[in-house]
Amino acid sequence: MDSIPSIYWMIIIGVFTGFVCFVLYQLAMLLRESKGAVVDGRKLINEAEETIDTLNDILEDVTEIVTTVKGTVYQVNSAVLVPLRKITTVMGITSGFLEGFSSKKK
């Protein structure tokens, strides 16, 4: 009985082979799952790029609208408010002059 029977060696080698096959199977399943995750990730990245492109287009439109409104406000300011302020200033100066002139008469 100084040697191990061959049936034990077969069992040990069979268990070891089964363990190696199980590890390789799990590794293959992990690679398959990661391939699916990469494909899903690429789809998400493409959708995100499309969304960003759409948002850039919207931002350009909004910037154009804001620029147009800004120009309109500046035109209204220069056409209406600036002359109105000048008229108000002239009226204030005239009113002050008349008040000063009328206070000297009293």
Automatic annotation (TrEMBL):
The chain crosses the membrane at residues 6-25. Keywords: Membrane, Transmembrane, Transmembrane helix. This is DUF948 domain-containing protein. It comes from candidate division WS6 bacterium GW2011_GWC1_33_20.
